[in-house]
Amino acid sequence: MPAAAIFSIVLAAITVLVLAAYLISIARILGHISAKLREVNNGLHTVTERTEPVGSIVEGINNDLAGVDGALRAVLARK
């Protein structure tokens, strides 16, 4: 086998190994990103669950303030 053929085979093998190492490192980085995104997603679900009751509380406050607004407008109308 000529030296050029052996050199080409060795060069191709090195290229494949370098590309494989590069792709493995990208896969590991994407795995870390995926884990962090799962943590963020879980945190968002927690925030959503904890803020659900706020809607009814805000509606109650808004209704109370509507009564106060009506009373204040009546007081201003008397002047």
Q: Could you describe the 3D structure shown?
A:
The chain has one domain (3-78). The chain starts with a helix and ends with a helix. Helix content is 94%, strand content 0%. The longest helix is centred in the middle third of the chain and has 49 residues, at 3-51. By secondary structure, the chain is mostly helical.
Brief synopsis:
This protein is mainly α and 79 residues long. 94% of the residues lie in helices and 0% in strands.
Radius of gyration: 33 Å
Mean pLDDT: 92
Number of helices: 2
Could you spell the SSE succession in H and E letters?
A: HH
How many domains, as an integer?
A: 1
Strand-pairing-aware structural class: mainly alpha
Beta strands, count? 0
Task: Give keywords.
mainly alpha, rod-shaped
Write the layout of secondary structure elements.
Blueprint: H1 3-51, H2 54-78
